[in-house]
């Protein structure tokens, strides 16, 4: 019995490796939403594998482009733009969608997170609290060649905005014309505040970095949503 116990870790590792090979090779039939190597399905309800699939897809420009093409987000690919000063973008798209007007530039990976958030978190939250869809996400831009906190001193690191890897949301317009503002409605305990908190929490599921008024005073009037490299949800 003691020998079996000693061998158990090795047997478990071998079994896991065999299962992974069978899944990856297609020899073991598993529904796509439970298969970690299956392509990310933008329309499928998220599960515990979604974060892994999203990260894997976002790190591969070809996979990202294919996945984003399967979303409802209206966009067009952009050529890379390296300005040579730590700014510019790679594997980016131009989002020209009425739900996010005016148009803006965003990396494919951040656009992927944006599309997932809008479909699987933002719209359900609006229906729950108001019985209305979000008709428009009011934003204050994405790409901006600047440092963190707009600082210009030496040694400051570039913001995620400097590589079009971040998006700032100021508010939402519902289908009935009702407007919900981060600045005006985050405080309090009414339905607007509850909706904004649910929208923020939902963003944390799909973006690497999500900053709200809970983070600091600089974010009192908007949500900052970015594609990395650090995981932060405040």
Structural class of the helices, strands and pairings? Answer: alpha+beta
Give a count of the beta strands, DSSP E runs of length 2 or more: 11
Q: Cα-atom Rg, whole angstroms? A: 20 Å
Q: Estimate the helix proportion, in percent.
A: 25-40%
**Tally of individual helices:** 6
Summed over residues and divided by their number, the pLDDT gives a mean of 89
Strand content range: 15-25%
What gross morphology would you assign? globular
Provide the low-confidence segments as ranges: 14-20, 151-155
Order of helices and strands: HHHEEEEEHEEEHHEEE
User: How far do the termini sit from each other?
Assistant: 50 Å
Q: Sheet bearing the most strands, described?
A: 6 strands, mixed
Integer count of domains: 1
Structure, described:
Strands 6, 7, 8, 9, 10 and 11 form a six-stranded mixed beta sheet that branches. Strands 1-4-5 form a three-stranded antiparallel beta sheet. The protein has a two-stranded antiparallel ribbon with strand order 2-3. The chain starts with a helix and ends with a strand. The protein has six helices and eleven strands. The chain has 234 residues and is α+β, with helices and mostly antiparallel strands. It has one domain. Helices cover 36% and strands 18% of the residues.
